[in-house]
Amino acid sequence: MIRYQIVRQELETPELGRYVSYGIEAVALPGGQRLAFVCDVSTDASFAADLADRCTAGALDPAQLLDVVLDAL
Question: Which of 3, 16, 26, 32 could cysteine-pair with 62, CB 3.0–4.6 Å?
Answer without folding.
Answer: 26
